[in-house]
């Protein structure tokens, strides 16, 4: 039989599985975010230890490498200066007249659908450093944001 028709395994024909990409920059987190990362690591470690389907364990190991790295590099961010929007702040504001509330958090704990924005998001960047009563530009529009109140995110 010709070598061209012989295949030792299917593994040689699969696409390579690259590591999950790590976001650039510092891995800033809130205390709650640090606990969420530690919980994710514990969950994945249990999943890997439990064995089972080989493909699922392989995926869990890949995710576990990502989350262990995120846990090892996590830095609990210092609180924002009093009265200023910053990392760990809950900001109440009006955007183009509509009232909104967001929490400024780390990338791994961000959940935009629930009002938790990463500190690297454009809206969060626009708010950081602002104070209550201040009017800010956003999205090439002057005076688009009016900050109503700023508080620390409740634990």
TrEMBL record:
Residues 81-151 form the Transcription elongation factor GreA/GreB C-terminal domain. Residues 1-18 have a biased composition (Basic and acidic residues). GO terms for molecular function: DNA binding. InterPro entries: GreA/GreB_C_sf (IPR036953), Tscrpt_elong_fac_GreA/B_C (IPR001437). Residues 1-22 are annotated as: Disordered. It holds the Pfam family GreA_GreB. GO terms for biological process: regulation of DNA-templated transcription elongation. It comes from the Bacteria. This is Transcription elongation GreA/GreB family factor. The lineage of its organism: Bacteria, Pseudomonadati, Pseudomonadota, Alphaproteobacteria, Sphingomonadales.
